[in-house]
Fold each of these.
Amino acid sequence: MHDVWNTPYERPIRSRYLDPLDVVWLATARRLGLRVRRNPAIFSATNGEGLLELGPRDTLDPDDTTAQMIFHEICHWIVNGADAIHHRDWGFALQADLDWREHACLRLQAALGDRHGLRLILAPTSQFRAYFDAIRADPFVPLPDAELAAHGSDAEREARVCERARTALVDADGEPWGGAVSAALTATAQFSSMLQPFLAAYASDVDDDPLASLWSG
C-alpha cells in the first residue's frame, strides 16, 4: 500500500480565512474610499489621502475588533464633516486638549448602534469608554453637571456635543455614508442574531478564559 504520509507534498494555499465581520467592515471602508492597512507603530490614524491605519491584531486588546475600529473612525468622519477625509486624523490636533468632537463621535456611535441593538457590541475600547458607558438610553441627553468633570467636560461643551451628535445622525443617513454604513450595521446585527442560539453552549478554547464572548453584549 502506498504510504501517503511519507510522500513529499506541499499543499497549495489558495485562500485566506477572514472573520465575517472583517469582510463586512473592510468592504464598507473600501466602499467609502478608505484603504485599511495595519501599522505596528500606531493604534489608529488617517493620512488625509484615504489611508486608514490600524494597529496589528496581536497588539490590540481582546475586545478590539476590526468592525468596531472602522465603525468608530467612520463616526469621527461623519461628526467632523465630509471634508475631514482630506485631513490627517480627521482634522484632530492629536497633541491638543480633548476635542469636544470626540464625545460627539461617541454619542453618534451609540445612536447608530442602538438602531440595530449593537451599542455594546460595537462600543469603543479606547480611554473614552468611560464616557461612552455613561451615555444614557437616549444618546442625546446631556450628562449631569456632576459627572462632566470626570470626563474633562462641562455643561457648555456637553450641550455642543449633544447638538452636533444629533446633526451628525441626520448626516449619517446621507452621502457618502448612509447606504454603506446602514448595510454594514444590518449585516452585523444579523450575525449577532444568528449567534445567539449558540452562546449558551459556547466554551472558550483558552483554558480558564475569564472573558465572555463579545457577542453576549
Note: The longest strand covers residues 35-38.
Amino acid sequence: MRDRGKNYRKYWIVIILVILATGAMATMVLAQTVQEVRVKWNAYIAAPAPQVEIGKEQPSNIFTLLERRSAPGLLPRQRNPELSSDQIVVIALDTQGKEIDWQIIPDPRILRAEFPGPTGELRGEVLHHAETELLITLPNDPSVKELRLYHPHWTGTAFILDLLGTIPLP
C-alpha cells in the first residue's frame, strides 16, 4: 500500500515539473523579440501609371526607410528556401559587411492580372507596381546596419542575384 502512495506522489511531481517546464519555455518564446523594418520602394519613378509592364520602363529602385522598431515574435523561417524570379533576397549586414541574416521574401512589385482579350478569351499578364512597401523581419540585433536587396534571375542554367539596392539602417 505504501509503495502505491509513493508512486502516485512521484507521478504528480513529474506532471507538475512538466507543466512548469512547459510554462517556462512558453514564457521564453513570448519574450523573444525581432526588429521590423518598413521600407518604401519606388521601383519606377517616371512610370506613367501605378502599374507598369515589366521591361517597358527603366527601374529606379529608390528605397526609403520608413520605420525600424522592435516587436515581440520569432523570425520567420522557410523549411526549404528556393530562389525564383518572383522573390527578393534580403541580406542583413553589420558595419564590417559581415552577414548577420538572410531571407527570401515575395517580390511586392508583382501584380498578376487576367482580363479578356479582343476575342473574349482570358489573357494573363504580370505587371509591376511602380511604388510599394516592404516589411522585413530581422533578428533583434543592434549590429545590423545595412540591408541589401537582390532580385534573382534565371540564366537557363543557374540563378544570378542582381543588386536592387542597399538600405542603411541607423
Note: Residues 17 and 23 are 10 Å apart (CA to CA).
Amino acid sequence: MESLVIPVLILLAVLAGILLAVRAMGRRKSPGAGAEPLPAAGSADLARTASARLSEDEHRRIYALIAQGQAMAAIKLYYESTGDGLRASRDAVGALATHPQPYRSAEVPAPAQEEAGGPERFPYRYRAIASKGEVTREVSSNMLNDEIYGRIRTLARSGETEAAATALTRHSDVSLDQAREFIALLDD
C-alpha cells in the first residue's frame, strides 16, 4: 500500500496542473467574429501603425522617452495621444521601441528625384562603416539610407565592385578611388 502513495500523489499533482491550464485557457477572450485582428504585439506592422497615428511632436517625445528608458511615461503619452487602451498603448510603445520608425507626415511623399536632379537628400546623415583587420573606412552622407546602402553592399558582395563604387559615389561626396577602397573592405 505504501508503494502506491507516491505515484498517486504525482498523478494528482499532474491532474491539478492540467485542470489549472485548461481553466486559464478558458478565461482568455477570443476576438469577436467581426473584429479585425490587430498586428501582433512587438511586430514591425504594429510599429508602423502606431507611428502613423502620432503627430511629429508626439512621435519625437515618445522616442525621447523610450531613449531615456522611461517606458511608463512613453506609454502614458501614447495613451493620451491616441485614446487607445492601456494594453494597446503598452504593445504599441513596445513595438516602437523594438522596431524604430521614422516620422512620416500624412501627405504622400514626393517620388525620388534620382533621375531628374540627382539622388534624394534625407533630413539626416547616414554613417556607413566598413573595416577589415586594422583598416577602417567611413562614409557619411545625407544621400544614403539603409535601403541604398543595402543595395551597394549586395552589389559588392556579388562581385560587381565597380557598380557598387559608382553607386556609392553617386550617393555620397567621396571620390571614386575612396569608394573603391570602401567597397574593397565590404567584399568578403
Note: Confidence is low (pLDDT under 50) at residues 29-37, 108-114.
Amino acid sequence: MRYYKMRRGEYLEERVPDLRAKVEEYFGEVTRTEGRDGVEMYVVEDTMVFDRVEVGVDERPNAKNRLAVHFEEKDVKTLQEEGLLDEAGKARKAKNDFLEEATGRDAKSRRESMKRDVEPDDEVDV
C-alpha cells in the first residue's frame, strides 16, 4: 500500500470531500469496504485493467491525513489476450489523474516526495 501526502497547506478532506464518490467516478462502483493496515478502504474489484483498487484515508493523530491506495493491475499477457492494451493506457491516466486531483501533486512531485520519505537521515558523529 502507498501513502500520499497533500500539498503544503492543503488537506485531503478539502480537496476530496466525498472520497467514495471520487473513487467511483474514476474506477467504478465500490463493491465493499475493508480494513487494511488500520485504514478503512473502499474496494473496487475487477475493472477492465485492475483486478482490485483500494482507496482510503490514513488518519494520523497530530498530523495531516494521507491518501492510502493499493492498485492490483491485471497481467499484461491477460490484457493482451483480452484485447485491452489500449484500455491500460486510459487506466494509467485515470489513476494518475485521480492521485493528482486528490493530492494536488503531479506524478513527478509524488515520486520525489516518496524518495525523500525513504532516504535515511544523515547521522552526525559527535
Note: Residues 85-103 form the longest helix (19 residues).
